Inverse folding.
């Protein structure tokens, strides 16, 4: 038994529920993690809009300091207001930049649920630190014009491209797509934005030269959206700048059962923050019906990034069994509550 081995590893994991249903799905994922028999300790940390309203900051200094003492973190969701609030900035975007979590990895895989397309198995690799998310906006012309700065650097484009090609290789080695050669699709809009998207494209294609075993193709982002919906099965790894990756991954979630199922990992060279792709869902918060699966899967991505792929695989298989058994929350057309799905996953892990 790995958990009894003398070299058993210990992990200190930060839990940041954030806002809305984050406060329901993160505790659910914690229960699943606790049932694994690994040596895990948890530290609950505050961040988000509710934290801002209470403490005047969305990402308290204590949270950042505590993260330094953790191996990784599980983040829930945040609901930033859609209007400007003095002193507020999105904590998850700040966290990604502060910890230099430059790769946002979003696997999108068919699930045995209504509405899921068959045979989808792709990975969206989203650049996570720049593009429009540098959040440098200003008003000009007496407030009649709003301007946002979009930053694309060769350095950030090269390192995210390397992640995409390495992942394509690793997926091939793990036979994620048996019998199919690894491929990276570079997404851009360089026909309209030849400097910014042009730099992203040119850098990614230069990196591709170091990976002759991985096929590379390019796709303009609007046609990417179309083809992703029409023929998702043809994609393997999709490499995109920050904003396009954000939008495409929400759209891709709709192909495999919805946002209740899809997880992501924000990965840097020293730290990982895993989170569901979904937001705080204020419309259902507090009702006990939020789907915990995306966050449970995020916990699996976290474990995989920490070097516990076996435990991650166990979680994925348990989730697969529960979904195949039709234990579904209302977003999937079922009647199960958050707690029922969580208990079913834990039971599947133990059987
Ligand atoms: N778990 C991902 C999440 O919370 N998504 C919503 C999101 O990105 N919100 C940005 C924000 O509200 O600051």
């Amino acid at each position: 038994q790995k958990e009894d081995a003398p070299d058993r590893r210990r992990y200190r994991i930060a839990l940041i529920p954030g806002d809305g249903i984050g406060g329901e799905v993160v505790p659910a994922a914690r229960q699943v993690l606790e049932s694994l028999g690994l040596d895990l300790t948890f530290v609950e940390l505050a961040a988000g809009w509710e934290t801002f309203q209470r403490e005047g900051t969305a990402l308290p200094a204590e949270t950042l300091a505590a993260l330094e003492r953790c191996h990784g973190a599980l983040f829930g969701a945040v609901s930033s207001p859609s209007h400007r609030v003095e002193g507020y900035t999105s904590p998850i975007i700040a966290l990604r930049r502060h910890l230099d979590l430059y790769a946002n990895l979003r696997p999108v895989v068919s699930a045995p649920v209504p509405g899921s397309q068959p045979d989808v198995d792709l990975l969206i690799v989203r650049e996570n630190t720049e593009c429009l998310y540098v959040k440098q906006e200003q008003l000009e012309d007496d407030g009649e014009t709003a301007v946002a700065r979009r930053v694309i650097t060769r350095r950030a484009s090269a390192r995210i491209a390397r992640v995409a090609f390495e992942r394509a290789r690793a997926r091939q080695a793990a036979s994620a797509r048996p019998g199919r050669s690894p491929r990276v699709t570079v997404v851009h809009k360089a026909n309209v934005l030849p400097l910014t998207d042009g730099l992203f494209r040119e850098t990614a294609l230069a990196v591709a030269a170091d990976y002759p075993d991985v096929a590379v193709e390019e796709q303009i982002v609007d046609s990417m959206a179309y083809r992703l919906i029409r023929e998702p099965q043809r994609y393997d790894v999709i490499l995109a700048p920050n904003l396009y990756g954000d939008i495409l991954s929400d759209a891709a979630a709709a192909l495999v059962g919805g946002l209740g199922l899809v997880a992501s990992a924000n990965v840097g060279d020293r730290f990982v923050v895993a989170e569901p792709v979904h937001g705080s869902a204020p419309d259902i918060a507090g009702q006990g019906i939020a789907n915990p699966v995306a966050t449970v899967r995020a916990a699996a991505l976290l474990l995989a990034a920490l070097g516990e792929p076996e435990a991650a695989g166990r979680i994925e298989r348990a989730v697969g069994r529960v979904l195949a058994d039709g234990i579904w929350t209302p977003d999937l057309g079922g009647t199960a509550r958050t707690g029922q799905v969580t208990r079913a996953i834990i039971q599947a892990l133990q059987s």
